[in-house]
Amino acid sequence: MNNFLIWDGINSIALEGLIIQELPPITKPDQRVNKIEIEGKDGDILDDLGYQSYDKTIKIGLCGNYDINKIAKYFTGSGQIIFSNEPDKYYLAEITGQIDFERFVTFKTATVKFHCQPFKYLVDEPVIDMKIIDQTQVFVINQGLEASKPE
Q: Is the pLDDT of residue 139 over 70?
């Protein structure tokens, strides 16, 4: 199976000379908890605070003809990432850390770290329009795809 990723809508296969050598393992993010110890009580109390963001690291390589500037441009910014070992899911991620492209060109290998938010989403999740109709107004429910603020 060929390893690939789709970063911000662009498949890594489209970049000539770029090889995705290793994909990150499929893992579950760590849970954040607040541990409370009470004097005189056996054990402790764990207060669930949600899940932590975490890093997913890939190994990349170069072969044949390549344009290092296109590859450097590809591995910048933030967006959605799909890994070929989970083709039906995407993560919201940002590239963190630096890639030493001089070393990359010399040794033809490097690592790229994606800082991922804790949840993964279905690539083809159906959109459901939900409306609440009051006798005087129609309210459209935010499905989680739009930024929202309380009024």
A: no
DSSP 150: -
What is the helix (H) or strand (E) element at residue 74, kind and residue range?
helix 68-74
Q: Is 139 helix (H, G, I), strand (E, B) or coil?
A: strand
Domain boundaries, the chain: 5-140
Give 93's DSSP letter.
E
Confidence of residue 2 (pLDDT cuts 50, 70, 90): confident
Q: What local confidence, expressed as pLDDT, does residue 23 receive?
A: 97
Report residue 65: phi and psi, to 5°.
-80, 135
Radius of gyration of the chain (CA): 21
Q: Give this prediction's pTM.
A: 0.77
Q: Does domain 5-140 have CATH number 3.30.70.3400?
A: no
User: ∠ CA 82-9-127 to the nearest 5 degrees?
Assistant: 75
User: Could you tell me the maximum CA-CA distance found in the chain, to the nearest angstrom?
Assistant: 69
